[in-house]
From TrEMBL:
Key word Transmembrane present: yes
Transmembrane stretches, start-end: 5-24, 44-65
Alphabetic keyword roster: Membrane, Transmembrane, Transmembrane helix
Name listed for the protein in its UniProt record: Heme biosynthesis protein HemY
Amino acid sequence: MKQILWVYGLIALITLALLSVLSYRSGAGYIYAYWNNIQIQTNVWILVYFFVALSFLGHSAWYILKRYFNQERRKIETTFSFNRLHPYEQLGVIWLLEGAQEKKDFVQEVFNQSGLLKQIIQARLLFSQQHYAEALNILESSSTSAFELAEIQRIEIYLAQNQAQQALTHLEFLNGHELSPWLSQVSQAYKNKLQVLWGGVAIQFPFQYLHSTQFGQLLTLDTKQKWLTALLSQLDTASLEEHELVQKRYLNIENHLDVLPYEIKVLWLKLLTHYPEMSQQHQHLALQLLNEKFDQDVFYLLFQQHLLRQNPDYDAIEQQIETLEKKYLGIPVFTFAKWHIYNATGKTQQAEQLLSLYPDDALMNYLRIKSTLKGNDELIMQLNSIFENDANFVKFKI
């Protein structure tokens, strides 16, 4: 339809030029028509443009009807061959079946005519075959108009090659680059793709992500959770600089933790557990989480952090537990913790009295058995080995 509009627009301009030249001395002319008592008086200009408009309407009607009847015919026609489909239909089938690799020659042939996407598609197909070096070379000759698409391809290749610095550098640049006007209609899809790439960098290279200028801004909540989990799993291999950066990043976001989901804050708490110098921040976050809702793991992390200090303040710990007991009734782990506190402070009689509580709780049963075996270190070690192999067992380091 666009071609028809262009053609008739060109015809109208040519006609205008010819009539202007021919009418220069003779004027617009005069035409008189009489038929069945109908009189029409006009000039050559109007008559010519009337027939041009009539031709345009007839051509447009023919095009629309032809397209409609073709679509209706395709609906009832039985397809016997992939090759008989329209190229756009063939691409649609390949896209739906994710069969670009199987039909890579056909896909490449379709896009060979595109000056914009030819190299981008070639690089994509090579990337899917893990031919990363060749894909990067082809992207060097891609159209400058498709700069963003080429950069996205490069970043995905660098991620596949585990080149963290290269991926992060290109992603930082692309994030600050103004989007080309022709991509404005798909700007949201473009932003979503960048968000996916940021998530890939964060999960694959959790410590390198800490260096990003976009830290914490472009990740979904699910990706943040996966990033923190990856960070925790690699914490033992981190350098001193990376440990310092983790602490710095936490201090930067500390005032904005309220808007984060509970699970993400728990992961930050587990990270802080590895940094004794941040015990104050750890305690503040743990109490904040316990005020939101009770979580046995969070309570354990708070209690353990208190006990790992050189001189634990048992009175303050006991007071905190009593405060929590008033809010959350019937939680056996509070009694379990108080038993350890009473034994550490010499209140053995009060500790013994606690053993009669919660007769069906596994943790309290553990304490009752441990108390019975008092003095027999070997049996206590065997008892601990049984309980510590249980995923639900809370190991208190006293």
